[in-house]
Protein: Extracellular small neutral protease
Organism: Amycolatopsis heterodermiae
Amino acid sequence: MSRKFALTGAVALAIALTPLAAGTATAAPASTQQEAAVTTVYYSTSGAPSFRSQINQGAANWNSSVTNVRLVERSSGASLRYVEGNDPRGSYAQTNGHGSGTIFIDYTQAQQYYPVRITAHETGHALGLPDHYSGPCSELMSGGGPGTSCRVAVPNSAERSRVNSLWANGFAANNAPEQRIYEDGTVLTF
Ligand SMILES: [Zn+2]
């Protein structure tokens, strides 16, 4: 029994030392590596005062999930604008899928569904993600597909990876036309 404890102690010591060794080994190359630039997308909530806190929460959920793009609220000069109102087709994102456009929050839909899921989902369109209504509640872009009880308002790992990939080169190489993506499945291209 004492021999077994001794062995366990030796293994524990080896494990404890490993991170130190690994840290020392990676420290030198890390200092010469160029850090990937983070692209900032400025958004305005002035057209959607009722949902400002939900919009900001949705943006914060994205900011804590991805590394290549960051959403920052700004009252003027924003490329992404949130507005609110009534539309029989519900909420929509009219966007180039790369940080520009208008996101419309529908009052009726915001009473039926969890509003932060709506704002985070619509923001997902502005960051480049399409709808995927057949997905589970854990998938942000499944939107209203899983029903009104779904309160997940953060992107899943696949959605995070996709957005990081789409923003790896910042605003560069984006020639997409604006589309209006309604949450009833209608997509209009401009
Ligand atoms: Zn959608």
Observations:
- Residues 121, 125, 131, 143, 181, 183 surround zinc ion (CB under 6 Å).
